[in-house]
Design goal:
Blueprint (H helix, E strand, L loop, with lengths): L3 E6 L2 E7 L2 E3 L2 E3 L15 E4 L2 E7 L1 H11 L9 H19 L8 E7 L2 E6 L3 E5 L2 E4 L3 H9 L4 H11 L7 E6 L1
Antiparallel strand pairs: 1-2, 1-10, 2-11, 3-4, 5-6, 6-7, 7-8, 8-9
Helix pairs in contact: 3-4
């Protein structure tokens, strides 16, 4: 569970997320990262010119990161992103031997100055001002509706959502 918030300010995209990771009902003390030494946040990442903020299974997010190294949507529009997800489904079945229906990711993708949210790769919608994903999304959306920055919105989710925690990390995409 997590909270990722995104806001578009002219040509600048701000994205923030929490760092808590869990395994079942237990918190992982080092948060979401690729290893304990580097403290890399696995919820916000950039691959192949695409920026992501993802909530969901850490292993599923890892599979998406590997896929993105060699695959990207033809263009940043809803239809091409949906086709790209179909490619991901085929790749999962062929390369990773994972059923696409077992993958659970709620995320944000930003590239070429455009931002989209996706839910389990089936619902894709363009973001024109701000949005959020994850269990803390409703708190973050309410905070941003009332003028909060993405960092403040995620901090609000960390404070009030049982499934959000850790620190706030933020990226600015120009």
């Amino acid at each position: 569970m997590t909270c990722i918030a995104v806001k578009i300010k002219g040509k600048v995209i701000e994205i923030a997320g929490d760092t808590q990771a869990s395994w079942g009902k237990n918190k992982m003390p080092w948060g979401v990262q690729q290893d304990k030494q580097t403290k890399v946040n696995g919820k916000l990442f950039e691959v192949n010119g695409m920026h992501f903020g993802c909530a969901g299974s850490v292993s599923d997010i890892g599979l998406l990161q590997i896929f993105c190294k060699t695959h990207r949507p033809k263009e940043m529009n809803r239809d091409d992103i949906m086709e790209w997800f179909i490619e991901f489904k085929e790749w999962l079945n062929d390369k990773a031997k994972v059923s696409f229906n077992d993958v659970n990711i709620h995320g944000i993708i930003a590239s070429e100055g455009k931002v989209f949210t996706f839910y389990d790769f089936m619902e894709v919608s363009e973001v024109t001002d701000f949005n959020a994903v994850g269990s803390g999304m409703w708190l973050a959306l309410g905070a941003m509706e009332n003028g909060a920055s993405v960092s403040q919105a995620v901090a609000t989710a960390i404070k009030y959502d049982l499934n959000c925690g850790g620190d706030v990390t933020m990226k600015i995409i120009k």
